[in-house]
Amino acid sequence: METVIANNNFKSEEYFINMGPQHPATHGVLRLLLTIDGEIIKKVEPDLGYIHRSIEKMCERDSYQQIVHLTDRMDYLSANINNEAVCLAVENALELEIPDRVKVIRTIIGELTRISSHCLWWGVMGMDVGALTTYFYGFRDREMINDIMEETCGARLTMNYNVPGGLMYDIHPNFVNRVKAFITHFKTKIPEYDRLLTDNVIFQKRTQGVGILSKEDAISFGASGPVGRGSGYSCDVRKHHPYSALDRVKFNECLETAGDTFARYKVRIAELWESLSIIEQLIDNIPEGEHRVATNAVIKLPKGEFYQRVETARGELGVYIISTGTKNPYRLKFRSPGFSNLSLLNHITVGGKIGDLVATMATLDLVIPDIDR
Amino acid sequence: MTNEALQQLITSWVPEIECTEEGSQFLTITVVPAKLHDLMRKLKETPETHFDYLFCLTGVDWGQALGVVYHLESTIHRHNIVVKVQTEDREHPTIDTVSDIWATAEFHEREVYDFFGIQFNNHPNMKRIFMTEEWEGYPLRKDYEDEINMIIK
Amino acid sequence: MNVPLSITKTIHEWLFSAMNPSVASGVEMVLIALVYLTIFAVLGLFLVLLERRVAAWFQLRVGPNRVGYQGLLQTMADALKLVSKELTGTDRADKFLYNLAPYFVIISALMALAVIPFSREFQAFDINIGIFFLIAVSSIGVIGILLGGWSSNNKFALIGAMRSGVQTISYELSVGLSLLTMILLTGSLQLSEIIEVQKEGWLIAQGHIPAIIAFMIYMIAGTAETNRAPFDMVEAESELGAGFHTEYSGMKFAYFFLAEFINMFLIAAIATTVFFGGWLSPFGITESLPWLGVFWFLMKTFVLVFLMMWFRWTFPRLRVDQLLTLEWKYLLPINLVNIVLMALLVWGNLTLKF
Q1: Which of B84, B130, B132, B146 should we substitute to test contact with A (largest number of A Cβ atoms within 10 Å)?
Q2: With a threshold of 0.80, does the pTM exceed it?
């Protein structure tokens, strides 16, 4: 810390404050070095690496089946979508023909994961601006999805449901009914979310005109997911590079043009509706068939480079595999959405108050293990 | 723009460039470090190419050489390109920064510096991002060894 | 000292017959202090439990329900734990002020409790400047918060303390002015007399429109005075960790915590006294049973306390500049106009009396 202070050229009235790694608003072990004048933020510098496990190095050691299990531990709230990304990359490299049933189930599970992640985000968002009750409402609805996941694959957070070639098991017989019950339940709950938080005047005043990110900056900073779309930047990977069964469903890309904290908030709420609609379109038409195609016990990818992009709840996840034809990747890079989204934090919070920083950080929806891979 | 047209255009700018579509779903070009910054600026600013979105920046240890791979996309034309650059110097590898062209590169280049030790010239804040300043060595290099923290096979 | 409750009257007479008057009044003071300390502790602990149960109810939970019947002893157990905890402190803190701060907060709350009329005869200290005394004493509490934040050598605590200073100074005005509006109706600052006036109808009904405006301003400003959400800038856990009491532990923390809840009770109790007729029963239905006054008083107070808890568990927090905008640009001008309105009302004899 002394070195940090020595490196800063403080003007008079400015002081240094250390936010994190143990701080309620940083959602994990993110450390922010703030330079503050009174309440006004002058500079935000993230200090990362408190839980870096070097997953990329571990991947160079592991087989492709093992790598899938590591991806759960990156963005643990989008665990299924992360799994899917690696599986798709491997399947595309092997040119495997994946059954329709698998594609549809993967899409449904992926959207359920997105809803569950956004539920948690909504709860935490409320908590960050001081409305503590939202947390429990978000968790109530998330719990139903966790129960569905538990019944389907035996795990609630780190599912490992996808394997290269398909799914670990077929879906549980109750799956369809429980998902339908969830949809009916959740459709009555989103308006409740709106009444409690979105329409609240204090909340709107806190978030409107705060943390403004222009479209040009969003693209330049590599913003993706709701952060980019809140600035009017069409960056939904599901639209531009559809994967699994996303090319056969109709859904809107939720765009807002204001670019402020409230716009990012509204994008996520709109995405809840879109995800529900995607699930509704698919849940009645899960095709019959195999849940998995056989792969070799030891998967060897052909020599070459493979890139797979998916849309997690936080934005664009890229899996870049460089293979030399052996059973391990030569280099595997995860382009995590949180890392790019974090890089614009300083840009959009300077000049705001401490309260604004917290509200803005909440709408970036950072998951620290995703940044510290 | 199709890959062929892109390839023609880029070769007209920098003739000695290597282009290939083999072993990858994207058009891949390889450029020498000295030409990198100019090429990148042109790729972004020329209206026909307009690669304004750097969606992935990867450091790779190729054995002898250290390299950086840039994945670019245009948000208007929706075409992609991969730019590769390599340097043979393992002691003091340096490559020009592209953080003045794409702001996202600032953090990603710091990550590459942290794990591969590649210095980026003109980078505004070239220091380690994940690991402590005192850390010795660059963990993602193939010749990195750490007997305490690594499980060696 | 004015304690003419019948049990206390017996004790009073017995004391004065048993020993000489100066010793007797000394002993009596100590006894009263002990009674009020007990009220303070029990009330504080009960309010904490109530808050936790109310919060749980809002948040689809059950809340504490294991220790004692329906968790009634839970806060007792918590208090025991806090008493037995080690008192940690920061290095290079200003030790004297650091230790002094909790007492400022708790003593101001206790002093204010003394003038609250729980019923006609249950009031420790009925002075003729009651309201003035309450406002004056309750603003001492902020000194404790400022000292605590400043002396604990922690920047988060310091920011919290400074916010608290700004906030209390601003909202004190609104609390004072909205109470002043009601004083125009009663013509007295003495709390017992304010209640006497309301035998012809609660003040909120007597003063109709201006009184309702005054009540709303008072509740907003009162919530801000006690540093509770949506005005909990001082603690703002998502921004400042725990704000001014970040570095306090054990019983010192408990003092801040209890004082916060007692202050909430005080704000509600003042509102009950000034706007809702204190211990008077609605429409005089239990006028023949004066001891029921305590019940009515607590009943009304707890409804208002519940209202404040409702605020806390529903609203997001304001930002510090919005907090000041609300006070100086909205509440204060409205309040000033409201006083004039009330004066006209009283002058034109337009009050409603039953």
Answers
A1: B130
A2: yes
